[in-house]
Amino acid sequence: MTQRAQPQLVPLDFIARTPPETAERATAFADLMARRRTVRDFSDRPVPRAVIADCLRTAASAPSGANQQPWHFVAIGDPATKARIRAAAEAEERAFYGGRAGDEWLTALAPLGTDAHKPFLETAPWLIVIFAQRHGVGPDGERIKHYYVPESVGIATGLLIAALHNAGLATLTHTPSPMGFLSDICGRPANEKPVILLVAGYPAQGAVVPAIHRKPFEAVASWIEADGR
Length: 229
Ligand code: IYR
Description:
By secondary structure, the protein is α+β, with helices and mostly antiparallel strands.
C-alpha cells in the first residue's frame, strides 16, 4: 500500500466581519475593481520594487490544484532586459498583425486599436512574466505531476491584477504569441511555460483607453434561490 501523509490541521485564521461591514466591503471592492482598465499608454515613473513584491505575495497566495502553487513570477525592471523583450515581442506581433492572426481575429481586435508597436514594454517600470509550471521537479530531478495548472495560474494572475490595481497601479495583460522567447530571456527551466506578460506602472499623463462596455450584470450572473425568485 502507498504510504500517504496524514493531514496536519491548524486553526483557521479567519477575519470575522459583521454583516454590515461585509456588505460595505463587498460594495467598495466591486466599485474599486469596476474602475480597472487595461492601459497601453504608460509613464516611466518608477514604482518601488517593494510594491511589486507585495503584489506578488498576493498572487502567490492564490489557491491551486493540490496546493502545488504551479507558478513562478519574474519581475523585470532592468532597461536592457525590457529592450530585449520589446524587440522579441514586436517581431512576433509584426508577424501576427501581418497575417498570422487571420481576418476574424483582427476584426475582433479592431475596437481596441492595437498594433505591433509595443513601446510600453520599455516605458513601463515593470514587466512581470507569469510562468506556469506544467509539472514540478522533485529533489532528484523526478517529474511531479501538477493539477489544474491553467486554472491555478489564472487565479493567481487575477489576484495579481487586482492587487496592482488596488495599490494604485495600471496594468496590461500582454500575450505576444508565441512567447517562448521569455523563457530564454528570463532564464527559466523547460518545465515552466510563459503564459502572460503583465505590464505594470503608472498611466501616461492624459492616457486614453478604448470606449468599451462591460456586459450588463444580468447577462453575466444568474441566481438559483430557494424562494423561487
Ligand atoms: N498579442 C497581440 C494581439 C492581441 C490579442 C488579443 I486576444 C487582445 O485582447 C489584444 C491584443 C497584441 O498584444 O497586440
